[in-house]
Recover the amino acids of this structure.
């Protein structure tokens, strides 16, 4: 019991210190992959623990395709971290695709626009979850591209974790 608590505590500390940490599974399957398709799922996202995400969206003017635009920033920062491993994050509508998808699932957003969530590495064909990455990322509350800043930070921290796992 104590060991399980200690592992969970260290994992939580790592997320707070580094922005992202593998909390379940392994990223070794990514070794040798050239592309990973990035998706965003905001269906579980809540604002300030118990309010609908729409309340956060209504705080400022937003562009219509903020989700796709936010993912572009995620991919940019992710690719800056993983290019040495020849791994590129691509959007769902890309002509390139890989064996795996990375599904970004923000779970909470605070009043300042910072998010906490999970990212799942999923087999593209079978939809089997291979690994879970916990993350947190700073943001703001009035950007027309709603999750731009937290997606940039999440892309960087998740990219670092994946690169570290596959460069060995």
């Amino acid at each position: 019991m104590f060991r399980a608590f200690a592992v969970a505590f260290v994992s939580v500390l790592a997320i707070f210190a580094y922005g992202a940490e593998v909390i379940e599974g392994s990223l070794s399957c990514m070794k040798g992959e050239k592309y990973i398709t990035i998706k965003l799922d905001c269906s579980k996202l809540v604002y300030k623990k118990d309010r609908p995400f729409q309340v956060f969206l209504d705080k400022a003017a937003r562009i219509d395709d903020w989700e796709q635009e936010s993912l572009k920033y995620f991919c940019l920062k992710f690719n800056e971290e993983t290019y040495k491993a020849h791994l590129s994050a691509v959007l769902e509508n890309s002509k390139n695709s890989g064996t795996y998808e990375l599904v970004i699932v923000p779970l909470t957003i605070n009043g300042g626009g910072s998010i906490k969530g999970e990212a799942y590495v999923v087999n593209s064909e079978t939809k089997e979850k291979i690994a879970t990455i916990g993350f947190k990322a700073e943001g703001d509350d009035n950007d027309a591209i709603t999750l731009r800043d937290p997606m940039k930070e999440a892309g960087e921290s998740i990219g670092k974790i994946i690169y570290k796992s596959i460069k060995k």
Residues 2-166 form one domain. Residues 106 and 117 are 4 Å apart (CA to CA). Residues 4-18 have pLDDT under 50 and may be disordered. The chain has one domain: 2-166.
